[in-house]
Every structure is written in C-alpha cells, then in structure tokens.
Amino acid sequence: MTMNEMPARRGLAVAAVLVLVWWAATACLRPLMLPDEGRYVGVAWEMLRSGDWLTPTLNGLPYFHKPPLFYWITAASLWLFGHHEWAARTASLLGALAGTLASYAFVRRWLDERAGRMGLVVLMAQPLWMIGAQFANLDMLVAGCIVATICLLAHSVLLAEHAQAHRAVLVAAWGMAALGVLAKGLIGFVLPAAVVFLWLVAQRRWRRLGGLFWWPGPLLFLCLTLPWFAAMQQRFPDFLNYFFVVQHFKRFAEAGFNNVMPVWFYPAVLALAFLPWLPWMARACRADADASPAQKSVRLLLLIWPAVIVVFFSLPRSKLLGYVLPAVTPLAMLAAQGYLARSRAASRFHAAWGFLAVGVGTALTLGVLSWLAVHPQSSMRPLAQALRESRLPSEPIVMLEKYYFDLPFYAGLGRPVAVVDNWDDPEVYQRDNQRKEIADAGQFDKAAAARDLVVPASLPRLLCRSPIAWVIGPSAAVERYPYLKAAARIHERDGVTLWRLETGAPAMADGLGCGATLPGAPQRPSSSPLSAVKLPG
Q1: Taking each helix axis from N to C terminus, what angle separates 167-184 and 138-161, rounded to the nearest 10 degrees?
Q2: How many Å from the N-terminal Cα to the C-terminal Cα in the chain?
C-alpha cells in the first residue's frame, strides 16, 4: 500500500462508519410497513424457518416475483442478530452503503477530495436515499448494486486510459452486476451496461467497449448467477417463463399493473427531492474550461447516468418511487460539484444556503421517519403479539380475505396458515395485487395450495378439525361469517380482528355445523380450485 492510498482508505472507512451510525440510529424506530416490508421480510423469515435457502416461499408457496439475494441477506441477519426490525432492514442498509461508498470513492478519486466529501454530505441529507436505506424491500439493494457496478466499470475504463492496473476492478464490476441480478433481476446488468455504453459512445471510445468483456468478468458473472436459476428451473419447470417472461418483459411492456403514473412522474419527484440544490446542479452541467479530460469525462457520466435511469423507468406505466433510487447518487454528486464551483468565490449567503439545504433535507428525513414511527402503516405487530402470547403452537390460524404479510414474522409462526378467499374467481388473475401473487405461487406447489388456499364454503369444515382455532380478518367479516359472532374477540385494531374459536362450544358447533366433523372424525381432503387454473403466461 502506498502512502497516498493509506489516507484514502482511512477516509473511506471513516465515511462508512459515519454513514452506518447515521442510518442505524433510526432503523428500529418503526414497525414493518405493509405490503412491501412485510412481504419481503416475511419471505426471508420463512426461508430461515424452513431451512430451505434455495426456494423463496410466501406462506409456504414458491414465490418467484424476485430473485433471492435480499432474502438470503435478511434471513442471515435475523439468524445472526435476532428478531428485530433493524435486523430485517440489513439488506437495504448494505445496498445503500455500497452505493454511497462507491460513488464517494469514485468522485474522490477522479475529481477531488472536496467533491467526494461534499457529495457525501448532499447524499446523506437526501430524503429519498435516506428513507430508502431503511425500507426493507429490494429497491435499495439493487440500487446500491447498480451504482457500485457503474462506478467500478467507469473506474476500470479511466484506469486503463491512464495505463494503470484495471482488470481486478473490472472483474469486481462484473461480480457486482451479478449481485444486482440476484437482487432484482436483469436490471442489475442492463442498466449499468446501458449507462457505460452510452457514456463511452458519447466520447467515441469504441475500443474500450471490447475491453470490458475480458473473459474472467463474464465467467464470474455466470458462476454467481446461473446456479440459482438452474436449480429453480430444475425444481419448477415453468420457472424461467414466469420469472423472465411474466415478471420482467410483460411487467415492463404491458398495462394492468399497480401504481400507474404519468411519464413525468420521476422527473417531478427528483426535481422536488433536489429542490434546494437545483441552481448548483444547473451550474455543474456547464462546461469547465479548466477541467482535466478525466474530470470532463466524469461530469459527462454523471449527466448520462441519471438520464438513462429516468428514461428507462418512465417507459412502463407502472412506477414505484424506489425504482429511481439509482439516479439519486449521480445527482447528489452533480449538486456537490456545482456548489463547490460557486463556493470558490462564495458569499455568506451562498454558504448559508448550503447549510439550509442540508438542514432541510435532514429535517424532512427525520420528520418522515418519526411520523411513520408514530403512525405505523397497517402494521400487524400488536395483533401478532397478542396471538403469540395466547396461542399454542398446535392451534391452526386462518386469515380471512387477505394475507397479512408481517404477521408470521412478528408472531414467529412455524408453519403456513390457511388463507380464505374466492380462489376460484377468474378475477384473481386480472389484477396486480397480493391475491394474484399468492395464486401464482400456488401454481408451483398445487399440493400446498390445496391445503392452504381455502374457499369460503370449505372454511367451516377446516375449523371443525381442531378444538381451538384462530381467525384473523376484517372486523366486518362477521356479516359474511355469522359464526364468528360466537367467537371470542382477543384483539381488534384498525378494522382487523383476532378471534379465538372453541369449536366444541355448542353455539360455535351449531354455527359451523360440526356435528359430523368433530375433532377426530375422518376427513376427506378438499381439492383446491387453483388446481384447474393455468399459470399466466
């Protein structure tokens, strides 16, 4: 290690510690939010509970909307650190840390130390990035992988042009791209490739394109990604069609999915998020005659990079806020450059405005996190705690008309629950919601679906099989299931009720019609209506 490398690595380590402390300080303030946090943490919890670290499952059914990296990290974190919300958010924290340090180190190396530090400050005060770092879904993990991949690829190109060793960095970029694919699919490779390709083409650096495909890189990429996809295709013959055709190409090209937004949604969101920094971002876009070729090249990359991300995700009708996270880091670095360029002859007003911008972003972030902590979004944590304290492990659980994603995590459930809905309704496959997710998952394990996906008419027979049963559902469900009026209400909150049913009690037995189905009587297994439904696509 040279003398110049030692301060650089020390600065990177200090930045990493400060960033982690800043994020971790508020990562445990609020419960898991529904649906996303509860869903993805619930899948990780099932992976840990079942011991099957290959097949992601949702209520015991194979769940292939997304690849497994988030679940692996989260399950390992829960195993290592315990059953805590902050442990469930480790994957997002790691993704944000990877993207933050990669962009900081890249700008520090190819622009200057002040630009790297200021970019880090802007990024840490950016609400989108801060809140995303504490949100337990796949968006921040894949964003961190995409940001790190782009920085490593660009770093290898610039090193090669300066006749410095670059191949180890290039292989690391391919490895990070593989993690991006395992985090959320093809965008982990496609987006970094598109950004770097357009960056090189815009500079007419055609020869550098071929150099990016040095064979150890693609080989590492395939070694990291192929085993899981091959294993899933071997276990489930329709896996590749469902994962790539249905969940990638159809989801990108077709309508009918949730969160339909206009084409200007992402530009508006980013403009609002960076509102205090917009004048300096505009300043950073102007040409600087004193800049070196490498600095001009980096500025061009920081301009092309967010444009590619925004255009790509603006094409589909379905738009989620977290998709645009990979564009946040280059915009933060641009804002920092513009601020520093002006600050060379800065007035007191200019310096005060910078402090104000950082303060407003930080206050907004803490305000949103505090509000979510005080007003949790549909969390089942209190109900799950009541269930955990009152229920014996052998007593079955039934969810009515909805699967409550976070309940297995908070209640520590050791097996799947029965979910009651109109699973034989063709409309199940027409709308992009949690009913369709579970129905799709049931097609990969029809035996488990026949056991755990129950139509309303079969519910009394299911309940009569056990002396004590627990039912969770909308409080208004008593109008559709009158026998719930004879059940004990254990917990009720936000329109959701936990009932305890004693099926041997006369009123309950009469309401359920348990005369011929008392506990111990032989039962004929019911067939699931899903067995006759063909998987979409």
Answers
A1: 160
A2: 54
> For residues 117 and 446, what is the distance between their CA atoms, to the nearest angstrom?
54
Neighbour count for residue 163 (Cβ, 10 Å) = 7
How many CB atoms are located within 10 Å of the residue 20 CB? 17
Strands 488-493 and 61-62: unpaired
Within 8 A by CB and 6+ apart from 350, the residues are 342, 343
Which helix (H) or strand (E) segment holds residue 386: the answer is helix 381-390
- Give the Å distances, CA to CA, from 320 to 34, 68, 261, 268, 325: 15, 20, 9, 13, 10
Residue type at 315? Answer: L
The single-letter code of the amino acid at 486 is A
Q: Are residues 151 and 103 in contact, defined by beta-carbon separation less than 8 angstroms?
A: yes
CA dist., res. 37 & res. 318, Å (int): 19
Whether the Cβ atoms of residue 399 and residue 417 lie closer than 8 Å to each other: yes
**What are the tens digits of pLDDT across the range 364-377?**
888 888 888 787 77
Specify the pLDDT at position 524: 35
Residue type, 216: P
DSSP letter (8 states) at residue 527? P
What percent of the chain is helix, strand and coil (3-state, nearest 5)? 65, 5, 30
The predicted pLDDT at position 368 comes to 84
pLDDT tens across 480-506, in order? 999 999 999 999 988 999 999 999 999
pTM of the model: 0.91
Q: Look at residue 531 in the predicted model and tell me its pLDDT.
A: 38
Using only C-alpha atoms, what is the Rg of the chain? Answer: 26
Give the separation between CA 154 and CA 387, rounded to whole angstroms: 52
Q: Could you give the CA distance from residue 181 to residue 184 in angstroms, rounded to a whole number?
A: 5
- In this structure, the strands spanning 496-502 and 468-474 are antiparallel
Q: Are 487 and 508 contacting, i.e. CB atoms less than 8 angstroms apart? A: yes
